[in-house]
What we know:
By secondary structure, this protein is mainly alpha-helical. The chain has helices at 3-16, 27-36, 43-51, 54-64, 78-85, 87-98, 108-136, 146-155, 160-165, 177-186, 188-199, 203-211, 224-234, 241-253, 266-278. It folds into 2 domains: 23-102, no CATH class; 103-280, Hypothetical protein af1432 (Orthogonal Bundle), CATH 1.10.3210.10. The chain has 15 helices and no strands. The longest helix is centred in the middle third of the chain and has 29 residues, at 108-136.
Amino acid sequence: MSVQQQLIQLLEQKIQQDKLLLPTLPDVALKVRQRSAEADISLLDMADVIAQDPALAARMIKVANSAFMGRSIKVNTLNQAVTRIGLSQIRNIAIAMALEQVFVSKHKQVQQQLDALWQSSVQVASVAASCLAYYNSREARSGLNKDVMTLVALVHNIGALPVVAEAEREQALLGDPRFLLQMATRLSTEVSMRILYAWGFADEFYQAALQWKKLQPDKPGPGYTDFIRLAIIARDGYADKELQQRLLQYYVAMQMVPQEDFMQHPEIQTVYQDVRAVFS
Length: 280
């Protein structure tokens, strides 16, 4: 048995025995989620919660001023930003903006891998949200929201994070970064489910984490996971290229995207750049 196989076996055992250290949501994200569930929460109350984290407050102003919100007149204060975003979207956007705080390690090599995971998640979220925006512009009653889509995509592979972080305790894992990321994604599904359950996320988040690796469309659909699959296809990320191509052709036929090289479409590319800018 190779060293890599031994490491995979070791991590599989830790997952089965529930011995991996799972990440927790940042405190401010927990507070936003808790307060947003209150029936009488006001926009000013929500601004007070977000203001407890200056970095998040600055990012929320940036979101409010971004093309992501479809506005051109700039806001200068957190209260104005929260009012513009609105209570219906504030929860998902605030959690999405705070999530980067989870991808942190004191070990330089591990941090590099966590940075790569975060950037991969942002890329998937940006493509998925831009494709959904295109679809919603033609199917107004899809029931799918861009802010939910962004957060679902950001956490679809969240289980890879503690697998990579385990490298701080298993030094042999640090030798091959590509192997580490591939292994983390391979082992991520069950861990993702545990994290999302611990975080109290809704069913669409579980379904995306459970199903995104499968090269088959949601039935009935389309659903959030389909747009994550489109993002993986845009990165040529599936090993089975024949099935990947057939799924892409299905999504084009369903008019979820206008063409096979959909990232070249100006509407999709514009929204993609807007979402990416929010996380820059």
